[in-house]
């Protein structure tokens, strides 16, 4: 009889132990599930900006069979281009000659057919300035250069025009990240309200990549060819949810 009593007591104690341990395991799982409750949202921030730098490369060519004559022609054309830019109001230090190229077509190993002009010389005059409005106005008068007999090369940016650059991105980043985070939290709060929860702290955040886009998103629009641009960043943020 005593043995039976001890056996029943031991079985009862074991059952209680299993129940208690099961409660702790279950409670721990519940707490873990609570800790894992979160929502992932994206926050967008955009700001319109204006280019503060313009780079314009004008490449022109001269051809002929007399090298000295071709060199004189390209030098004269270079002067015409520089005078055109200076007379348009640009400073001498904003203009420089670049990339002089000389081709002897008779020296080309794989040439085919007769050669009409043996020598081809190409010269680039580059303008780099912060006066972007003046560049845009001057580009509209490019026909004046063509009227002088200058042969602008199809290989350069002339057909597409100057390149407009915005250099102030780093100064915008802190405020735009803050705005993107604020917008992300607003989205998380809406989600939490719909699910009967509250928004807690940030669990994980990905700042995202800053993009400089054309302000006017028309077909074929290129950001580099527009003075007005849009800076955009999309941040991905995980917020914990609370009951």
Please provide a written account of the structure:
The protein has 243 residues and is an alpha+beta fold. The chain folds into two domains: 94 residues, Protein of unknown function (DUF541), domain 1 (Translation Initiation Factor IF3, 2-Layer Sandwich), CATH 3.30.110; 113 residues, Protein of unknown function (DUF541), domain 2 (Alpha-Beta Plaits, 2-Layer Sandwich). Helix content is 39%, strand content 32%. It has five helices and eight strands; from the N terminus they run H-E-E-H-E-E-H-H-E-H-E-E-E. The strands form two sheets. Strands 1, 6, 7 and 8 form a four-stranded antiparallel β-sheet that branches. The longest helix has 34 residues. It is elongated.
């Amino acid at each position: 009889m005593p043995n039976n009593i001890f056996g029943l007591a031991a079985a009862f104690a074991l059952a209680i132990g299993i129940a208690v341990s099961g409660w702790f395991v279950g409670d721990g799982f519940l707490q873990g599930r609570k800790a894992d409750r979160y929502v992932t949202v994206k926050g967008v921030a955009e700001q319109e900006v204006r280019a503060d730098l313009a780079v314009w490369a004008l490449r022109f060519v001269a051809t002929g069979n007399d090298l000295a004559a071709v060199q004189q022609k390209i030098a004269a054309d270079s002067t015409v281009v520089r005078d055109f830019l200076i007379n348009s109001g640009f400073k001498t230090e904003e203009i420089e000659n670049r990339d002089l190229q000389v081709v002897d077509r008779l020296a080309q190993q794989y040439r085919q057919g007769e050669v009409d002009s043996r020598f081809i010389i190409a010269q680039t005059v580059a303008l780099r300035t912060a006066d972007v409005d003046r560049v845009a106005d001057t580009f509209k008068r490019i026909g004046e250069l063509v009227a002088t007999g200058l042969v602008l090369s199809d290989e350069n940016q002339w057909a597409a025009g100057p390149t407009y650059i915005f250099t102030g991105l780093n100064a915008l980043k802190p405020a735009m990240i803050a705005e993107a985070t604020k917008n992300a939290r607003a989205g998380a709060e809406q989600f939490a309200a719909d699910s009967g929860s509250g928004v807690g702290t940030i669990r994980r955040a990905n700042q995202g990549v800053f993009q400089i886009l054309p302000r006017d998103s028309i077909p074929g629009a290129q950001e580099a060819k527009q003075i007005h641009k849009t800076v955009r960043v999309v941040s991905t943020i995980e917020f914990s949810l609370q009951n």
